[in-house]
Design goal:
The chain is α+β, with helices and mostly antiparallel strands and 207 residues long. The chain has a single domain (23-161, 180-206), classed as NADH Oxidase (3-Layer(aba) Sandwich), CATH 3.40.109.10. Helix content is 29%, strand content 25%. It contains six helices and eight strands. A hairpin with a 4-residue loop joins strand 4 (43-48) and strand 5. Helix 2 (88-95) packs across helix 3 (99-120). The longest helix has 22 residues, at 99-120.
Length: 207
């Protein structure tokens, strides 16, 4: 956040973010999977910019599930992982199918801020873009016709590995519709599916 401002007709103060957005459409959403973080119970949270709060979507440590989806055991030992997602329609209503490139443009500006701040704080950030999409999307509880995961950012020192838990149930959290006349652009979903991973690649195969 860079500043706060009272806007005529708004009931609450408007918070301005440091990261730019294509067309000021703000299609990027922020989630965080927490393990060992002071002041927070282990779980999966969604950041709500409206009231500047974290809302817990899942109880319990989900870092092991994230580690499995990315074939990176270290995720289960890091303090937290930020997950950036994109909601198609927030950008596509203006830019149509070419909104797909804007999803990464917008999240990229947020990545730059996250890396700068977390690096300055000594949190040793790392960015992961290779993961099994369906597993991460299911973990967050996304309706993938509207929203998908784009990047994972791991943070914090390594500690004890998160316990391997039983298969996680699906979640379906309530969301408000963005529009009464949302238009589907299948090409966006096709591009994302073509670039996604549907199986977990071993690090040995990537070497």
């Amino acid at each position: 956040m860079t500043r706060e401002e009272d806007v005529s007709g708004w009931a609450a103060r408007v918070l301005f973010r440091a990261a730019a957005s294509t067309g000021a459409l703000y299609q990027t959403e922020v989630y965080v999977a927490v393990g060992e973080v002071a002041g927070l119970e282990p779980g999966l949270y969604h950041f709500c910019p409206g009231d500047f709060t974290l809302r817990r979507l899942r109880d319990g440590d989900v870092r092991a599930a994230l580690a499995a989806s990315a074939a990176d055991d270290s995720i289960a030992r890091r303090s937290a992982t930020i997950l950036l997602t994109a909601i198609y329609w927030r950008n596509a209503w203006k830019y149509q199918a070419r909104a797909y490139r804007h999803l990464f443009w917008d999240s990229g500006t947020m990545l730059a801020n996250i890396l700068a701040v977390s690096g300055a704080l000594g949190l040793a950030p790392g960015v992961l873009t290779g993961f099994v999409d369906v597993e991460v999307d299911r973990l967050i509880g996304l309706d993938t016709t509207h929203e998908v995961a784009l990047e994972l950012i791991v943070l914090g020192p390594e500690g004890a590995a998160a316990p391997i838990s039983a298969a996680l149930d699906s979640i379906d959290h309530a969301t408000l519709p963005l529009s009464s006349s949302e238009v589907d652009y299948p090409l966006i979903r096709e591009m994302h599916a073509a670039s996604g991973l549907d199986t977990c690649l071993c690090r040995e195969h990537l070497a």
